[in-house]
Design brief:
Layout (H helix, E strand, L loop, with lengths): L8 H14 L45 H7 L25 E5 L14 H12 L8 E4 L15 H15 L3 E5 L1 H8 L3 H4 L4 E5 L2 E8 L2 H6 L4 H13 L4
Length: about 240
């Protein structure tokens, strides 16, 4: 048995050569001779990243100020994880006695003097209005006081920032806590947003517990408007459980 004599092998070869030329292949052989029958050389061993010899210690509540005023001052001190980051530190805003606290991940790139003062903030204000409140009535804070370079919480300081955020919630002790975004959900509940949404959580602190709802960050809703009905359901659940 031989090759199929009805196939135009020359035409097929010419077609392959033409495709390679279009793909940018400009030579058919290497500059140096190659032994095509030689066994392939084993790949070089992967370089191992050196293990950290200085583990990052998680801050304990006793190491953080016990009053809100002192805590907010300390939050912009050299003792916090973001101290060496570039950029401006954004302080929390709103009354210390707020019944509703809102926690986001970090300042927005286009924030002015306060958190959520850009386009995402305008949507945030409309979300608050939909549940019958205003920015002036809520305590608004972020997990990161400064914006990380890539806009994401650094994993090497995630546990420290989570401990600080949890302590902050405990100082306010609000009746309700609205957590916006995945990083904020991980900081407060140690759970990613998709798994945390859709149910009420009880966040325990030294003076009691706070009913907590996780939802989408306004920046995500700007990018994915189709998620707004889901966010509205989250807000409705927050209001239904205002006494939780």
């Amino acid at each position: 048995m031989g090759a199929d004599q009805n196939i135009a092998w020359h035409a097929l070869a010419a077609s392959a050569l033409e495709w390679w030329q279009d793909a940018g292949v400009d030579m058919l052989v290497d500059d140096a001779p190659r032994d095509w029958f030689a066994a392939p050389a084993p790949p070089p061993p992967a370089a191992l990243a050196p293990a950290s010899t200085t583990p990052v210690a998680v801050l304990e509540p006793a190491e953080m100020p016990a009053s809100l005023a002192e805590f907010l001052t300390w939050r912009n001190s050299p003792a916090v994880p973001e101290a060496l980051w570039g950029g401006v530190a954004f302080a929390a805003t709103g009354p210390a006695t707020a019944e509703l606290m809102v926690l986001v991940d970090c300042p927005e790139r286009d924030d002015g003097e306060t958190l959520l003062s850009g386009p995402a903030g305008r949507l945030f204000d409309r979300m608050l209005a939909a549940i019958g409140t205003t920015r002036e009535a809520v305590h608004l804070a972020s997990v990161c006081a400064k914006r990380p370079t890539a806009g994401r919480v650094h994993r090497d300081v995630e546990a420290q920032l989570a401990a600080i955020a949890q302590h902050h919630v405990g100082l306010i002790a609000p009746k309700r806590l609205l957590v916006l975004g995945n990083a904020a959900s991980r900081a407060i509940l140690a759970t990613d947003l998709p798994d945390a949404r859709g149910r009420l959580h009880a966040f325990n602190h030294k003076t009691g517990k706070t009913g907590t709802v996780v939802s989408f960050h306004p920046r995500f809703l700007i990018e994915k408007p189709a998620a707004k009905p889901e966010a509205w359901r989250d807000l409705q659940m927050l209001m239904r459980n205002s006494d939780a």
